[in-house]
Design a protein that fits this description.
It comes from Streptomyces coeruleorubidus. The chain has 244 residues and is of the alpha/beta class. The protein is 31% helix and 24% strand.
Length: 244
């Protein structure tokens, strides 16, 4: 049977396993995403974006660091209780030292990123909510990383998540995203299994073309330093939301 988003207990997302497998060091794929996104964010003067959203933030801080170079406020919207707890603990109490190299790379590629990791994350507001509940047109900029294709096994639901992502910004609002390419249902840690919807540059382009203008979709190859989840790399996107 096909697993849909609402079939999954997202409160039990294995934060420690996920971070250990993916974010305890800057992998080549991270560096490639950060370089791509830094070029996007350098288009904006510091503080030019009043309000941006990280659409399904998870426990990944580098998209939030990247957004801090342009955004005065960043809403990190996340449904899973374990991810929310990690985000809040990091921002309010302590920061894992493993995020410091990510901050250093983000700042090297975009000097508008605040000089300290704590300064960058001072822009972040953690919101415990389902991204599907976001009022349309709430933001000037939306960012999404490994969410729509990792929330479901159903392509129609993947496309619905992408449409909701675009609708989160006002017409003319800016979009930046990364997707795992051809990600199947996969395991994180010793036992837990999580959905995946295999997509590639062509399918991402197909979904976003009617919704956007100035769409740019690129690909980076699979990263052998990461666990083999069955993916074949990443798909990166920038664009501008079309009229509602």
């Amino acid at each position: 049977m096909t697993t849909h988003n609402d079939d999954v207990d997202w409160d039990r997302w294995p934060v420690a396993d996920y971070l250990r497998e993916n974010y305890r060091e800057v992998h080549p794929s991270d560096a490639a995403v950060i370089a791509h996104h830094s070029a996007f964010y350098r288009r904006f003067p510091p503080g030019a974006v009043a309000r941006s959203v990280e659409f399904g933030a998870g426990p990944n801080f580098y998209p939030l660091i990247l957004a801090s170079g342009a955004s005065r406020r960043i809403d990190a919207v996340e449904a899973g209780a374990s991810n929310v707890a990690y985000l809040q603990d990091q921002i309010c109490h302590r920061l894992d030292a493993s995020w410091l190299p990510f901050h250093a790379l983000c700042r090297r590629l975009n000097p508008d990123v605040p000089a300290t990791l704590a300064g960058a994350l001072a822009h972040v507001n953690v919101v415990h909510a389902d991204v599907r509940s976001l009022p349309p047109g709430s933001y000037e900029l939306a960012s999404m990383h490994f969410v729509a294709e990792g929330a479901t096994e159903d392509f129609a639901e993947f496309a619905d998540f992408c449409r909701t992502f675009v609708r989160a910004v006002e017409p003319g609002g800016h979009l930046v995203a990364a997707f795992m390419e051809n990600m199947p249902t996969h395991r994180i840690g010793p036992a837990s299994r999580w959905p995946g919807c295999p997509v590639g540059p062509a399918t991402v382009t197909e979904v976003f073309t009617p919704l956007t203008r100035d769409l740019d979709v690129t690909h980076i190859d699979t990263d052998p330093t990461l666990p083999d989840y069955g993916d074949s790399g990443m798909v990166l996107l920038t664009g501008v939301a079309g009229a509602a």
